[in-house]
């Protein structure tokens, strides 16, 4: 019943929300940032497949570093049959961070519980972002929902655009050997086939190469950044930073990413959040609603609600990619 009740309460609040006039100026800014994020995700989806498909080491199970400019029209079909390492399931790169975490987990029961415990996941960070964005409907903060989501969208776009440029320029092996043969079809033999697969299939869980830094961690990092900027307090922000630390550690232990992937994800996303401050700075709250007449929802306002729901749906995909 919690789901239907929540939707009913939200619908009632939309009907009685008095500050639609304050939100409307930020809609165009949000739509532009949102469109940029969606476009980047579609391009990145194609590039993730292109890198996995054109890296011959993925199909031959060979570890190592492949420095090349990956063009979609290029495809290397075979690697030398005389290379004895072709069939070895050897991890790609040495991860000292993972080794240290395993050592710490084995040295103390509390550390083992912290490192291996599954306390937080995608839905918690997603819930925190959406709750903060739309909680101004309950006057919990003085900031625009569309303004905050505009900055969120552009931050994700900028950070992941940098990631795409990085993993397209230098191809690193996956922490999980043999990934490609388990997850992808045999590589097509034509340029059209590569592009077709890249644009018709969504890959919410990445490819079979290390992508320089974690898209998951980039998304997770935005949650504490949003709270620090728009809802600073002594409880929620530290809790979200702790959740980010523990979740990043668990991804390293599970060999979803290298340690450097998580460090760079947090650093790059934090930098991108600062770069996009002009989109909606934290010192630009909405005007006070005291003494103002009611502004009941118009057709345009209700359309904005639909846009908000679409935003939530795309945010779910971003969270899983």
Automatic annotation (TrEMBL):
Main location group: membrane
Highest taxon of the lineage: Eukaryota
All residue ranges annotated as the Sphingomyelin synthase-like domain in the record: 207-276
Compartments, record wording: Membrane
Keywords assigned by UniProt, alphabetized: Lipid metabolism, Membrane, Sphingolipid metabolism, Transferase, Transmembrane, Transmembrane helix
Lipid bilayer topology: Multi-pass membrane protein
InterPro entries from the UniProt entry: Sphingomyelin_synth-like (IPR045221), Sphingomyelin_synth-like_dom (IPR025749)
Transmembrane segments: 296-319
Pfam families: PAP2_C
Family: Belongs to the sphingomyelin synthase family.
Protein name: Sphingomyelin synthase-like domain-containing protein
Organism: Tetradesmus obliquus (Green alga)
């Amino acid at each position: 019943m919690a789901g239907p009740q929540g939707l009913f309460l939200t619908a009632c609040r939309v009907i009685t929300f008095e500050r639609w006039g304050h939100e409307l100026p930020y809609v165009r800014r949000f739509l532009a940032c949102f469109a940029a994020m969606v476009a980047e995700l579609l391009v990145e989806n194609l590039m993730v497949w292109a890198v996995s498909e054109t890296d011959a080491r993925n199909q031959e199970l060979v570890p190592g570093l492949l420095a090349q400019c990956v063009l979609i029209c290029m495809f290397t079909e075979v690697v030398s049959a005389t290379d004895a390492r072709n069939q070895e399931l050897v991890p790609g790169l040495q991860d000292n961070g993972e080794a240290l975490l395993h050592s710490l987990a084995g040295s103390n029961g509390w550390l083992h519980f912290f490192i291996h415990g599954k306390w937080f996941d995608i839905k918690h960070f997603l819930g925190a972002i959406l709750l903060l964005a739309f909680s101004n409907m309950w006057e919990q903060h003085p900031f625009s929902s569309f303004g905050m989501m505009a900055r969120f969208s552009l931050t994700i776009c900028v950070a992941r655009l940098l990631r795409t440029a990085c993993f397209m320029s230098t191809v690193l092996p996956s922490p999980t050997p043999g990934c490609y043969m388990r997850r992808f079809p045999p590589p097509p033999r034509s340029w059209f086939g590569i592009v077709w697969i890249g644009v018709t299939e969504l890959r919410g869980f990445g490819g079979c190469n290390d992508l320089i830094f974690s898209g998951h961690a980039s998304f997770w990092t935005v949650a504490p950044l949003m709270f620090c900027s728009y809802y600073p307090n002594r409880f929620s922000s530290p809790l979200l930073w702790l959740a980010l630390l523990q979740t990043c550690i668990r991804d390293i232990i599970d060999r979803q990413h290298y340690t450097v992937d998580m460090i760079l994800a947090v650093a790059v996303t934090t930098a991108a959040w600062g770069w996009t401050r002009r989109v909606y700075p934290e010192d630009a709250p909405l005007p006070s609603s005291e003494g103002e007449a009611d502004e009941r929802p118009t057709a345009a306002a209700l359309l904005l609600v639909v846009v908000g729901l679409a935003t939530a749906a795309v945010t779910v995909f971003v969270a899983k990619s």
